[in-house]
Design goal:
The structure holds two protein chains of two kinds. Chain A contains 14 helices and no strands. By secondary structure, chain A is mainly α. Chain A has two domains: 62 residues, no CATH class; 204 residues, MetI-like (MetI-like fold, Orthogonal Bundle), CATH 1.10.3720. Chain A is globular and about 70 Å long. Chain B is built from 13 helices and two strands, in the order αββαααααααααααα. Chain B starts with a helix and ends with a helix. In chain B, a hairpin with a 4-residue loop joins strand 1 and strand 2. Chain B is globular, with a radius of gyration of 23 Å. The chains are: A mainly alpha, B mainly alpha. At the A-B interface, helix 1, helix 2, helix 5, helix 6 and helix 7 of A face helix 1, helix 3, helix 4, helix 5 and helix 7 of B.
Chain lengths: 285, 289
């Protein structure tokens, strides 16, 4: 293991060739991972002639005119509005459905409980992408095709299984005695949920909201298929149209992409632990 | 606590589950057995549509592409993810910070990824940095249009997909590495095992359950969640047409929704088959772990 080389070097204080090589590998790996972010941000600050002269150089001086273009000609403002509506609706639906299910499965013994759990686990094996055609037909039959609400339902259904499992594990960790004590004090179910369960399960809710909101915010395929009108395009769909034109106005596109990326970067910086939990839940015991 | 209460709580979730996951599974099957143009369900075709799809050379080509893509992506994601995990689990200064940075691509929007990689690999007239690097290294004869040439397009898309998700697999492996008993390493060290031997004798066997999950996750992703990366980089052109892009075109370009539904089920069957085979094959290995 390379860690032996590294720890030996750290102890002796002298960087050995092996350690230097590891540092070089680490640096290279990090550079390639942040490369695109740095590229879109710096590119968005360049003037057109500057960008086309050398797309990989740093901007000589910052200018924000590309952002004005992004909002005016690329209509990023409209797309952002659409994305916000869909993501909020989707998260609302998801939390409403997943938290009630998770609570019922965590707190009540009733016939059919394990069957429900099994059903949820089984449907997690079916990715919604594979159901494109029937979902299309069902959304149309319900009059939801091309609506924000319809897409939000599909998103909520896609994140439902994972969210139920995660929230259920948090609810299971809340001591039953705590709830019973509150009930003896005369608190009703709603009040127990609000004042006892919710605060303790908050990290779980946060993980669900962050991971699922990011998934919905970044989703291209489902929005592309179920929300086809240009006026209701979410940011990725709107920018895809912009990106796949024959002549691309790159600096404007990069400004738009930076606008799309910054909220996720802020979330990621603030809530890294929630990201880790959200992505490893269930995968590692 | 009346028995009605849990079911009352379960109602919203079950409605969502039934309408948007369970009903579509059944409805899709029904549609795949009929003529369906996206608007009106036509006459009953039985399995004729499945037969037509399976003997269609374009579909076979797409299926073959999907399989090639999946093999490269599953191997790539796991090898790169494991390498990164080992690298960031070392006590190097900044290794902890590197974990966050290496996870960044997972959070990036596919259009950002598409724009960057298009520029890096193509866009010869003002960039094509990769070809430029090749020339500087004296490998100029390798330079080409990576995303449009028939020989490299699918492979290039697969590389971008590996790049995009390597951070996620790193995270899975990292969690696995951290759960390995450190005493095992000490014991191996006392036995005189070198770094490389410890990796093969302790780390890899200890990671068996994680590798199993990681491969399964990668497999699913490679087969069904690949539309966006393919579409953004090549628009699903002939050389990179995979099942899911083929299905999309069949429905939304040619209005053959019934056929597209059949393709969805064929793809599902293929994934189920491969997953079951994999789970069955690794059963003995896991039991030994």
């Amino acid at each position: 293991m390379p860690d032996a080389i590294a720890s030996r070097a750290l102890r002796s204080g002298l960087p050995r060739p092996g350690t230097l090589l590891l540092y070089a590998a680490l640096l290279l790996a990090m550079m390639q991972a942040v490369g695109p972010v740095i590229w879109i941000v710096t590119g968005s600050l360049k003037t057109r002639p500057q960008f086309y002269a050398n797309p990989w150089s740093l901007p000589t001086h910052w200018q924000f005119h590309n952002y004005v273009d992004a909002f005016v000609t690329a209509r990023v403002g409209d797309y952002l509005g659409n994305s916000l509506i869909v993501v909020s609706l989707g998260i609302l639906l998801l939390i409403l459905t997943a938290s009630t299910t998770a609570y019922a499965l965590a707190r009540f013994q009733f016939p059919g409980r394990s069957a429900v759990l099994l059903l949820i686990l089984a449907t997690m094996m079916v990715p919604p992408d594979i159901l494109t055609i029937p979902l299309f037909a069902i959304l149309r039959a319900l009059g939801l095709l091309g609506t924000f609400f319809g897409l939000a339902c599909v998103y909520a259904a896609g994140g439902y299984g994972m969210s139920v499992l995660l929230l259920r594990s948090y609810f299971l960790a809340v001591p039953v005695e705590l709830e019973e004590a509150a009930r003896l004090e005369g608190a009703g179910t709603i009040s127990i949920l609000r004042h006892v369960v919710l605060p303790l399960a908050l990290p779980g809710f946060l993980t669900v909201v962050i991971i699922q909101a990011m998934g919905m915010w970044n989703d291209l395929y489902l929005a592309f298929v179920f929300l086809r009108a240009a006026d209701s395009a979410t940011v990725p769909v709107g920018l895809l149209n912009f990106f796949q034109r024959s002549s691309i106005d790159w600096p404007t596109l990069l400004a738009a992409l930076t606008t799309l990326t910054v909220p996720v970067l802020i979330l990621f910086t603030l809530f890294q632990r929630r990201f880790v939990e959200g992505y490893t839940v269930g995968a590692v015991k | 606590m009346t028995p009605a209460k849990p079911w009352l709580l379960l109602t919203p979730g079950l409605v969502l589950l039934v309408v948007f996951l369970i009903a579509p599974i059944g409805d899709g099957l029904w549609l795949s057995l009929h003529e369906f143009d996206g608007l009106v369900v036509g006459r009953w075709l039985g399995l004729a549509q499945y037969r037509a799809v399976l003997i269609d050379p374009d579909f076979q080509q797409a299926l073959w592409h999907s399989i090639e893509f999946a093999v490269v992506v599953v191997v790539g994601k796991n090898v790169v993810g494991l390498t990164l995990a080992v690298l960031v689990s070392t006590p190097l200064r900044g290794a902890r910070f590197a974990r966050s940075i290496l996870f960044l691509p997972v959070t990036m929007n596919i259009i950002v990824i598409g724009a960057f990689w298009t520029f890096f690999l193509e866009a010869e007239r003002f960039g094509g940095l990769f070809n430029h690097i090749l020339r500087v290294m004296g490998l100029g004869f390798l330079a080409q249009s990576w995303l449009t040439s028939a020989r490299t397009a699918l492979f290039s898309v697969a590389l971008v997909e590996i790049w995009r998700w390597a951070g996620l697999h790193m995270l899975l492996f990292l969690a696995g590495i951290q759960s390995i008993d450190p005493q095992l390493y000490d014991a191996a060290r006392i036995d005189g095992a070198g770094a490389w031997q410890r990796f093969w004798a302790v780390t890899l066997p200890g990671l068996r359950p994680v590798i199993f999950v990681s491969v399964l996750v990668a497999l699913m992703g490679a087969f069904v969640r690949s539309f966006d990366v393919v579409w953004v980089l090549t628009r699903g052109g002939f050389d990179t047409d995979v099942v899911i892009t083929h299905l999309y075109n069949e429905a939304f370009k040619f209005s053959e929704f019934g056929r597209a539904a059949a393709m969805g089920y064929i793809l599902f069957a293929v994934i189920a088959l491969i997953s079951f085979a994999y789970v069955w094959a690794s059963k003995g290995v896991r039991a030994g772990a």
